[in-house]
Design brief:
mainly alpha
């Protein structure tokens, strides 16, 4: 949020002070209440994405059990793999969190 050239300048100034920040991480608001409203909306959006991915993974696991009730098939194996992967997805895997400085 905010004027991109200004966010880029702020990010550059922070970087000069050894604070790692990108322009996309700088949030310009009209005041504290505006910032709180935006952060709540962003948190809700990120939670919805994470919850949706987890729900798809769980549905894939149930689908794998249903499809493979008479023995494991290719479709059941694919659903099982998708569902299993969904169990291990974390917000950072989806790009929903900012990595700590120095970590990859």
């Amino acid at each position: 949020w905010g004027y991109l050239p200004l966010r880029q300048t702020i990010a550059r100034l922070l970087h000069e002070r050894a604070i790692l920040a990108e322009a996309r991480q700088v949030l310009l608001t009209q005041g504290a209440n505006h910032a709180l409203d935006l952060s709540q909306a962003e948190a809700r959006k990120r939670f919805a994405i994470y919850f949706g991915v987890k729900l798809v993974g769980l549905m894939a696991l149930f689908g794998a059990v249903f499809v493979s009730k008479d023995g494991l098939t290719l479709a059941g194996g694919v659903l099982l793999a998708i569902g299993g992967a969904g169990l291990f997805v974390r917000p950072r895997h989806l790009g929903l969190t900012t990595p700590k400085s120095g970590s990859k």
